[in-house]
Amino acid sequence: MDFTFTEEQQAAVEAAKAVFADVAPDSVPSPALTPGAVAQDFDRPLWARLASSDLLSLVLAEEHGGAGLDAIALCLVLREAAGVLARVPLLEHCATAMAVQAHGSPELAAALLPGAGNGTLVLTAAAHGRTGHDPAELAVTARREGADWTLEGSQTAVPWAHNADWIAVPAHTGEGEAVLALVPRTAGGLVLAEQCSTSGERLAELALDGVRVPATHLIETPGAWERLRQLLATGTCALALGLGERVLTMTSQYTAKREQFGFPVATFQAVAVQAADRYIDLRAMEVTLWQAAWRLDAATGAAGGPLPIAGDVAVAKIWASEGVRRVVQTAQHLHGGFGADTDYPLHRYHAWAKQLELQLGPAAAHEEALGDLLAAHPLA
Question: What is the number of helices (H) and of strands (E) in the chain?
Answer without folding.
Answer: 10, 10
